[in-house]
Every structure is written in C-alpha cells, then in structure tokens.
C-alpha cells in the first residue's frame, strides 16, 4: 500500500505540475496576444496620426498653392492693367505729337507758300481785286458784314 500512495501522490504532483504549466502557457499566450494587440493598435494609431498629419500638410500646401496662384493672378492682372495704361499714354502721346507735327507742318507750308510767291504777282492780284471791287455799278456801303461765318470788309465808292 505504500507504493500505491506514493504512485498516487506522484500522479497528483504530475497533474498539478501539468496544470501549472498549462496555466503558465495560457498566461504566456495571453500576454503575447495582448502584446500583439497593443502593437497592432499602436500601429493603427500611428498610421492614423500620420494620415492626419499628411492631410493637414496637404491642406496647408493646397492653401498655399491657392494663395500663390491668386497672388500671381492678381499680379498678372496688375501687370496687364499697367501695360494697358502705358499703351494708352503712349498712344495719346503719339497722337499729340502727330497733331503738333501736322499743325506745325500746316503753318510751315502756309508760310512757305506765302514766302515763295513773287511779290509783283501778289501786288498785281491785289490791285486787280481792288479795281474790280470799284468798277461795279451799284453803290456799296462801308462797314463790316458777316458772310458765311467770315468777317468781310466792304468799302463804298
């Protein structure tokens, strides 16, 4: 009977040992699973954080691009406006120069034609005009008359 108790005791010890080892294995597996779960969740959190940062970065860069594009657009509009103003000023200046040139050219041509005339012909034409005005049969009044928006001097005979 001593052997039987010893064998039963050993079997109980083996059973306890196996159960203890199974519990340790279970705890170890559970700890490993918790570790894996925690690591997985940390990775997910890290990925989400990085995605949020990327989103914020992309939105910030898009806003900067929008601001840059709008600034460049406004700058181009200002440039076009300034160029149009300069073209307008240039055209007006050139028109003024053309006007002055034509006016001076007209005065010069009139003076040139006047100076180019032969003085004897000028005197003869003046005399002929004067003599024709005095050979009319009807009397003429002395004074100033307006005829077709020009001042005309008349003399009487």
List keywords for this structure.
single chain; 157 residues; mainly alpha; two-stranded antiparallel sheet; 83% helix
Please work out how many helical segments DSSP would assign. 2
Q: Assign the structural class, choosing from mainly alpha, mainly beta, alpha/beta, alpha+beta, or little secondary structure.
A: mainly alpha
User: Largest sheet, order of strands side by side?
Assistant: 1-2
Considering DSSP H and I runs of 4 or more, what fraction of the residues is helical? over 70%
Distance between the ends: 187 Å
Share of β-strand residues: 5-15%
The average pLDDT is 80
Number of strands: 2
The domain tally reads 1
Overall morphology: rod-shaped
How large is the radius of gyration?
59 Å
Can I get a quick summary?
Helix content is 83%, strand content 6%.
Q: What this model shows, in words?
A:
It is a single chain. The protein has 157 residues and is mainly alpha-helical. The protein has one domain. It is built from two helices and two strands. The chain has helices at residues 2-116, 119-134; strands at residues 143-147, 150-154.
């Amino acid at each position: 009977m001593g052997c039987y108790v010893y064998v039963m005791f050993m079997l109980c010890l083996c059973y306890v040992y196996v159960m203890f080892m199974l519990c340790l294995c279970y705890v170890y597996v559970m700890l490993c699973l918790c570790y894996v779960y925690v690591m997985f969740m940390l990775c997910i959190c890290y990925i989400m954080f990085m995605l949020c940062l990327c989103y914020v970065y992309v939105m910030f860069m898009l806003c900067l691009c929008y601001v840059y594009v709008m600034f460049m657009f406004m700058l181009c509009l200002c440039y076009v406006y300034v160029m149009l103003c300069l073209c307008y000023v240039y055209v007006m200046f050139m028109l003024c120069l053309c006007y002055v040139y034509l006016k001076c050219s007209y005065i010069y041509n009139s003076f040139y034609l006047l100076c180019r005339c032969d003085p004897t012909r000028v005197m003869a034409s003046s005399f002929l005009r004067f003599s024709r005005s005095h050979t009319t049969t009807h009397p003429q009044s002395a004074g100033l008359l307006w005829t077709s928006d020009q001042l005309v001097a008349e003399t009487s005979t």
